[in-house]
Amino acid sequence: MDNAINMEQSYHQLQVLQQNIQQVIRGKDNQIKYILTALLAKGHILLEDNPGTGKTVMAKTLAQSIGGKNARDTSVFKRVQFTPDLLPMDLLGAHIYDEDKKEFIFKKGPLFCNVLLADEINRASPKVQSALLECMAEHQITSGDVTYKLEDVFFTIATQNPVEMEGTYPLPAAQLDRFFIKIIFGYVDEDTELEIYNNYLGISRNLEQIQTVLNIEDVKFLQAESEKILIHEELVKAVRNIVAQTRQHAEIVLGASTRSGITFLKCLKAFALINGRDYVIEDDIALLIKPVLDHRLIYKNKEAKSRVLDAVLKVELDRLSRLNLAK
User: Fold this and answer.
1) Do 134 and 140 form a contact (C-beta atoms < 8 A)?
2) Which tens digit of pLDDT belongs to each residue from 106-128?
3) Same-domain pairing of 192 and 137
4) Number of domains in the chain
5) Whole-prediction pTM
């Protein structure tokens, strides 16, 4: 395996992809980086916020920016609107009887794609939500005695409304753990919002005419490049210490798992690549700790949720600053 990182090609492709998305998604540069981080880390992302903040448009724009081997390959992107009456077979597929062959054949569901938009995922019942567990964790679907492999690149962008809203079902801990990153999508600032109001027709046209700038092979290349990013041993120890502290903290009921730590490291490497570096820095840990870990933890109360990770992070950053790490 070639361990040399092609930074010039990787960074150029990522810049082109980000600029393409920014034609439609205005004022969300940080959120775009988090989404691409999850994609390069071979994970999935959960976007939470109130309706109308652009979560679905973001997912569509990313999917349209990525094509298959042929331009506009329709198998790349699938959207599922989650509703209370949705059934697991609506996602996975089902066996149907073929009159010509006189046998049952498996008709694949929308999960057989590269980019899945699971829109308003918490409006579906827990039974349907759990149907995603195997495919998100293992990139496969089991139906009866047969296991079907999903695509090499399988990226789920799930959106959800705040769980306090009527008609929603909180995602269980096992489901949340499948998402590498969870972010609050948020509103844009006042100046950006005014720009959107003045140019909403042009932005809508941009979405309809968005160009495919990368294909699936390009995404696989970027995923492989992110794995080569350098991370100092002391930064690996910092991740270990943070994860361990979440298990020992008096205000956390359920701490982070070893899998959470591995996910953290993968996201750190991908985030560094997106920012044009072939190495991870302390600031990356500070920027990713909450998007990667916060949704995996169960706190004793809301007050603890707002302060505990900040305190744990400060301890590690202070330790790292005393070491004065060199690149």
Assistant:
1) yes
2) 888 899 988 898 988 888 888 88
3) yes
4) 2
5) 0.90
